[in-house]
Write a structure and sequence with these properties.
This protein is of the alpha+beta class. It folds into 5 domains: about 150 residues, Alpha-Beta Plaits (2-Layer Sandwich), CATH 3.30.70; about 55 residues, no CATH class; about 120 residues, no CATH class; about 190 residues, Hypothetical protein af1432 (Orthogonal Bundle), CATH 1.10.3210; about 120 residues, Orthogonal Bundle (Isoleucyl-tRNA Synthetase, Domain 1). It is about 45% helix and about 15% strand. A hairpin with a 4-residue loop joins β5 and β6. α11 runs antiparallel to α12 and α16 packs across α18. The longest helix is centred in the middle third of the chain and has 26 residues. It is flat and about 100 Å long. The chain starts with a strand and ends in a 13-residue tail after the last helix.
Length: about 700
């Protein structure tokens, strides 16, 4: 009869940011091991608190299923001699399967008569397998660095203290990580630091909660915190900003959550709210509160792991802790405002960007010049772009960024405003880092976008130029992310600019790169290859990108417009026939030893099918030429799809490789014109599906 299985490992406080991934991996590992042993079950769930990892399997079979296993041996004619006596091969098969020679049986496997041995397998009691299953699952947890404690040689992410394993109401006999399994768990460290005996998996959660002051269900505890925080925020007419990562971390820090509201001095609101939020969120794990205008309020919400009889004391303690942190932020801000970004910039000469590429000051020199060139190309204010490039890294030497690394760029924005710089330049100080990750927003200002481009391009060319390009999964300078960022800035913001030209300008800012000028093409190829994954995520087949890539273009916006057009074209009913025709034309032309003259002589068009094709090509040329000029590739390919019938008829009725050289070359020229029309957009022959 199926039973529920529960395993709980009790530990010292586990890393809060890793708790959820650890328990999910633990549950998945047990699930996979159960399946590998052919054990059936209804479901697998997990529970996790700061001091425990638990997995619950509902409806687990008591034993592995019994089944007949057939072991095939050598062919009968090999296993027995002409007199019907077993040979060495037959005797060896019998010995291998521990059966008497006279018990050898012969059956046909569908092709030939062979020896066969049938036996019953399975029927292994589940309880005898659970120790190995749990041990294996714990060994495979994603723990970067395991630790030892005391004199023990046992290793785990944190010291372990208890092990509970129950199959139904029975204790599973097991010894794991030096612990002997029993039915004992422990309650809350402060509210109920005593042993709790669990009679069966069914009453595990209720016993911990009702007696032990522990909410073991991670997701339920998380929802409780969310609801409590919202209630606290509503009580002061505010709105709590509940970040998912912070919520998960706070959930992993408590077993009995109690949300409490604290307050800080309003004078701190003069400090950039990002710095205040970071102080509360990163250092204290507090939720911050905003008003209806999304302005920070002088309150915070903390989640305590204890239900205090005097919550005011807990609140006071938290307020005492946060006050000096906010005071530090205010001090840094006021200190930094005493010197301008221009003055701070000189200190960048002491910070190395990369040993072979100079200092951060050197980088700002290059970025400033490059930003000016890009702005001029895009008809923007090149002077402002150049100044933004000069100041873009000055906040790195500020007190604020030294204390709060995530304020990089944000601090620059506030200090630029304090210096009286234009709003757009100040915005660029922060927007240079956008997008920070996949799916992140792009800069809202042109100068911010130009600076973001210049900064990434400088890094890409510089790092490639000294031979430090990414290899395999290693990408210490985040060049893949930088490449995708550049492509997004150009494509999504519709910036009409050539990437090869940008890379050439970037290269020219360096005096001597070891890789030389070849780095331009190297970086270009690497960056454009990022398009492949980009389009895969959009569900666009690789063949579509390859068709456009064959054109060897370097204009990202133009490439994207072509890819979108070809992807639309491939879904038209005429697409496959025309792709196959283009492939056929390509094969025919490639085999010719001499260059084909592209001019078609109408006097040599002797058949109706070739005259119809020539006429249609001429008509299409008139239609699509202005569309190509406007880069309306979708409409152009839609129009060219109308050639399908005349192309099919041509190949049905016309022999191209005739003996008459003039006639042959004229037909080849006609086909080359046909292919040339499509090649204006992409090599659609690469869309052709091979026939099975």
């Amino acid at each position: 009869m199926p039973q529920d299985f529960l395993v709980e490992l009790g530990t010292e406080e586990l890393p809060p940011k890793a708790l959820l991934s650890l328990v999910k991996a633990f549950a998945k590992g047990i699930e996979n091991q159960l399946k590998a042993n052919d054990l059936s079950f209804a479901s697998v769930g997990y529970f996790a608190t700061p001091r425990r990892l638990a997995v619950n399997v509902v409806g687990l079979d008591e034993a592995t299923p019994q089944k007949e296993v057939a072991v095939w041996g050598p062919p009968a004619k090999v296993a027995f001699d002409s007199e019907g006596q077993p040979t060495k091969a037959g005797i060896a098969f019998a010995a291998k399967n521990s059966i008497p020679i006279e018990a050898l049986a012969v059956e046909n496997d569908g092709k030939v008569d062979k020896l066969i041995f049938r036996e019953q397998a399975g029927g292994v009691q589940t309880t005898t397998l659970l120790e190995a299953i749990v041990t294996e699952s714990l060994a495979k947890l994603p723990i970067p660095k395991r630790m030892r404690w005391g004199a023990s040689r046992t290793e785990f992410v944190r010291p372990v203290h208890w092990l509970m394993m129950l199959f139904g109401s029975e204790i599973v006999e097991a010894n794991i990580l030096g612990l002997t399994a029993n039915r004992e768990t422990y309650g809350h460290r402060f509210h109920y630091s005593h042993v709790l005996e669990i009679s069966s998996p069914e009453n595990y959660l209720s016993m911990l909660e009702d007696v032990g002051y522990v909410i073991a269900d991670f997701e339920r505890r998380k929802q409780m915190i969310r609801e409590q925080v919202d209630v606290q925020a509503n009580a002061i007419n505010g709105h709590a900003i509940i970040d998912d990562d912070l919520l998960n971390e706070v959930t992993a820090l408590v077993e009995w959550p109690v949300a409490l509201t604290g307050r800080f001095d309003e004078r701190f609101l003069s400090v950039p709210q990002e710095a205040l939020v970071m102080s509360m969120k990163e250092h204290q794990k507090y939720f911050h509160i905003v008003d209806a205008q999304q302005q920070l309020m002088p309150y915070f919400i903390t989640v305590s792991n204890i239900e205090s009889q005097d919550p005011a004391q807990v609140i006071d303690g938290n307020e005492r802790v946060i006050r000096p942190r906010l005071a530090d932020a205010a001090f840094f801000f006021e200190t930094d405002k005493k010197t301008t970004l221009t003055v701070k910039r000189d200190k960048l000469k002491q910070i190395v960007f990369q040993a072979k590429l100079g200092t951060v000051f050197d980088k700002t020199e290059r970025v400033a010049t490059l930003a000016g060139l890009i702005a001029d190309k895009l008809n923007l204010d090149s002077h402002e772009a150049q100044r933004a490039g000069m100041l873009c890294k000055s906040d790195l030497v500020s007190e604020m960024v030294s204390e709060f690394a995530d304020m990089q760029g944000i601090a620059g924005y506030y200090y630029a405003l304090n210096d009286g710089e234009p709003d757009t330049l100040a915005m660029a100080m922060n927007e240079q880092y956008l997008p920070r990750y996949a799916g992140d927003q792009l800069p809202s200002t042109d100068i911010g976008a130009v600076l973001a481009l210049a900064d990434r391009l400088d890094t890409l060319v510089g790092i490639f130029g000294i031979g430090e390009q990414p290899t395999g999964s290693k990408d210490p300078f985040a060049l893949r992310r930088a490449s995708v960022g550049v492509l997004r800035l150009i494509v999504e913001q519709q910036r009409n600019i050539d990437l090869r030209e940008l890379l050439t300008w970037t290269y020219q800012q360096y005096s001597d790169l070891p890789e030389g000028e070849s780095v331009i093409e190297h970086v270009l190829g690497y960056m454009l290859e990022r398009f492949r994954a980009w389009y895969e995520e959009q569900g666009i087949p690789a063949a579509v990108f390859q068709a456009v890539s064959a054109k060897q273009l370097s204009h990202p916006l133009d490439i994207d417009q072509r890819v979108q057009a070809v992807n639309y074209f491939r879904q038209l009913p005429e697409a496959q026939a025309l792709a196959a025709a283009n492939k056929r034309v390509s094969n025919i032309i490639t085999k010719q030893d001499i260059a084909i003259i592209n001019k078609v002589s109408e006097d040599l068009l002797s058949l109706d099918a070739e005259r119809a094709l020539a006429s249609s090509i001429k008509e299409q040329l008139t239609i699509v030429t202005p569309l190509f000029a406007e880069r309306d590739y979708k409409q152009a390919l839609t129009s060219l799809a109308g050639l399908r019938c005349v192309v099919d008829t041509f190949f049905d009725d016309v022999m191209v490789m005739v003996d008459d050289i003039d006639l042959r070359n004229n037909r080849l020229a006609l086909l080359q014109q046909l292919r040339g029309l499509f090649l204006e957009v992409a090599d659609i022959s690469l869309l052709a599906v091979a026939k099975k």
